[in-house]
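Blinded run. Sample ID left blank on purpose so nobody reads anything into the name before looking at the predicted structure. Input follows.
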Amino acid sequence: MTKALFINGSPRKNFNTAQLLQRAMEGASEAGAEVEMVNLYDRNLNYKGCMSCFACKVKGGRKGVCSFPDDLKPIMEKAVEADVLVCGSPVYCGYPTAGLRAFMERLIFPGVNYSDFRRPVVVKPKRSATIFTMNCPDEEVYRANNYHILMDASAHQLGMFGPTEILYSFDTYQFNDYSRYDAAMLPEERKARVRETQFPQDLQKAYELGKRLATEVKQG
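Blinded prediction complete.
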């Protein structure tokens, strides 16, 4: 059976990023995949980025998988063995969250082949995607802030495993009650309008994304 893993790199388990990942997961399940969601900011999950142990580069050792013994190790095993991998993150200071960046370090570095940079070590090819949520009102502002360089560079690293893509969700709702926060540059009326009109479309795109990726794996 097709295995699809969804990585939530947001500290919030039920907000924008998580909701989009959930819909993508539902789409993959509809296509017949076995699905699982991992919340990187789970309080019981203790891990760091690459520790430079170089175990993944030792001659005769296991290649392509991070083997550092912490709470991320079993998740890395699942990520490597997955047929579909979808990561999600909000934009923090122009980058994916620290949690997702640490995950990406641990996922990507073992695949870097020090004997031939042109041929990454891929244990199992996969279809993948990254979902980004943000305050940017549209793609024009996203690019004006160079997020297409800073954010997309991270997402495109998944291309070492096979075809990958990015789904953007702009101008997302941040607070349940805007009156409690100093956020004059983020008009609640506009945010609420986008939440009611655009976000449902983004959720549908996420569903279609998950279903498409899982279907592509089945079709080979």
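Unblinding after everyone has recorded impressions. The longest helix spans residues 188-219.
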